[in-house]
Amino acid sequence: MKIPHRRARVAGLAAVLLMTSVTAATPAFADSRPAAASVAGMRFATFNASLNRGTEGALVRDLSEPGNAQADAVAEIIQRAAPDVLLINEFDYDAEGEALRLFHDNYLAVPHGDAEAADYPYRYTAPVNTGVPSGFDLNNNGVVSGGDDAWGFGLFPGQYGMAVYSKLPIDEDAIRTFQNFRWADMPGALLPDDPSTPEPADWYSPEELAEFPLSSKSHWDVPIRVSKNKTVHFLVSHPTPPTFDGAEDRNGTRNHDEIRFWADYIAGGKAGGYIVDDAGRTGALKGGSLFVIAGDQNADPNDGDSTAGAIDQLLQHPKVNTGSVPTSDGAAEAAELQGGVNLAHLGDPAEDTADFSEPPGNLRVDYVLPSRQIRIIDSGVFWPTATDPLARLTGSYPFPSSDHRLVWVDADVPGAKPGR
To answer: Which of 136, 240, 294, 346 could join 46 via S-S bond, C-beta 3.0 to 4.6 A?
Structure first.
């Protein structure tokens, strides 16, 4: 599988670990180095890499030394795709930022076969809601315990977290996180309804809604400096899957509103005036700002179980450039070979980004969506066909890397300073 070649980038200097407080008890981490030369043609990518583990601390242990087979496969995919700015979904968060560093030093910075080592001097991670106990019976089964009663499904705090790796500087002082923004504070929120009662939107009690966060993980605005005076806002998240619930559709409605959050944020003005970040700053993205929305949105525009129109909130947004849809030959081949529900899907199978069992079958759920001002040069999905030697990195269940595929977009960013 060949991905268009781009010239090597300028390397940075030695990394320094910085802490940026998101809450009083749980720090975020941003590794930074002095500004390197920025570039005009940038590659942005998202990858739900399934670097999650079933117990707290297990990911740090797995990454503490080279040689973990799954991490090797994930790292080689990233090295071959060679993004300048990358979001990794399902990357367990730890309060010391060890996993963030170890994956870089022991895997990304180590060549895999003929894939060149990758250097990401700028990195960011922060707390998420997955696995954080709510103290409430959120699934209404009469017991307060387990991942279903966490603010986002997870077996321990930080499971299924996120990580950003960048070859260009991150403006740490301007990062905004929205981990604690309350779902009920979104005007017109699709709060789930218990169909067995006459009251509307009553699945969650008033006491629960008084604390319930919109984000199942978090929403982050991570500004990337592409030149001395130009920034691209990397808007990243991982909405909850719209399944694993009942007739109340509590996960489907939350997924819809997690996606809507970015639609309102980039719309700005009154549409996003309700938004408050974790530092207490109000308002949406400033008009005219450059942005790239990235992440596993857990929503397909044509197929699957998401609430009607969920991802269309972004795909049909007037400020989003959707002129190029990432595709792969491997996705089209997989749909044909696997058959079943895939053959009944309405969407183009070449656009799929995840290899799911039935139901729902393979879907397009991972997105890299630039703002209108950013011209898309090229795009793709890292999904080799079965005869491609690199198919060993993606494979079939049990997957050597992940059931998701890395999605990338090459972007011509206005005002970026040529540095190659």
So the answer is: 294
